[in-house]
Write a structure and sequence with these properties.
heterodimer; A: 110 residues; alpha+beta; B: 328 residues; 8-stranded mixed β-sheet; 4-stranded antiparallel β-sheet; flat
Amino acid sequence: MQLLQGTLDMLILRTLIFGARHGHSIAVTIQRTSQDDLLVDHGSLYPALQRLERQGLITSEWGTSELKRRARFYELTRAGRKKLTAETGKWERMVRAIGRVLQHPDERET
Amino acid sequence: MLWRRRTRLDEEVASHLAQETADNIARGMDPAAARSAAIRAFGNVNAAKEKVRELDPLYWIDTLCQDIRFALRLIARSRWLSATIVATLTAGIAINVSYQELESRVRDVPGVVHTSFTSTAPWSGLNPTRVLEIDGQPIPATRDYRQDPARRVVSSDYFATLEIALTRGRGFTHNESSSTAQAVPTVISEAMARRYWPGQDPVGHTFRIAAVHQVIGVCRNVQGVTFMRDDGPFYYSPLDPHQSTPPYMLVRVSGDTRAAAAAVREIVRQLDPQMAATVATLASIVERQGERLKPVLIQGAIAGLFALLLALSGVYAVVSFSVKPTRS
């Protein structure tokens, strides 16, 4: 399943909540956590990371990956945490609202 | 700054591909297949780089450099562009005349070297199509249209007419058709080969869009759609010989292009008096397309002038500060 438009940023921020990760690890974590239901388009990941960094929601620095390769590690900033809290709240409200519409019995005009 | 960002992304992509390859090997793939699968999963690396570049406030400098490079290349190829004429046919010829008939008549015009037909103008916009399967294996959809290959339906001499070199395999024969073969014989661009069969010879491999296509050849990438940078993945399928005449006829001329253009117009008129053909050299079409270069070049010149003034004032300030007055 492809990610819904606009949700990649939120999922990246959520993935970084437990500490710094590099791009590949972020993609794999999203896929694994969703039990392979969500496919991250790897080509869209890096533009999204750089966009979030520009917005000050994450920071990055070079480090060494598990393969002993140089990799860029991304970390959540305070602004990023705030944004994640706000976005998660908004998302949950949206899901509840859509759920209510989908589960509502047919309404007939009287 | 722009260069640093580009290097950073190159390193990140390399690191990402190494990680993904290692994961694939751990899943039991052999190293070559693991690397290919990693590149395929990443998608079009150039499109990702382009997206990152677009985020940069100094992106316009990059664009300006590309535009200047393009303008220089155009100047270098102007003779070639002038030797190609394009006849745009109005609808209707399809009913009365087959494109083979038109083609054979135009070939007899003195100075005509190659003639070909295409359903889409070489300079027109992208019409990307989604690849569903590679060699029978389903592949995930991309979210960026620039990663999907665009299609051109062309007659056999298209590559010779536009001097698009084939780097592997072969082009189309005169009788090759999309409708008779089980798999559509298809020529792909190098960008498409890199995208779906990285590090492999794609000839003989298949992909599915609506129909199944079999790669028979690979050609060089062309600058057609944007006129500014290399187009993304492309694939070319053969025109059906029984199909109606496509709207664009490309004619490669050696010698007097004006006389050849007049002759082409006359042939079209003779075949169908109701028919009209707009005939122009590819050079003039490209020039019209290139009109948008002007504001960019002016913008670049103004920025350059401003930078020069700043530099001069800086030099003046440093010199004034360091030179002591000889008299009080």
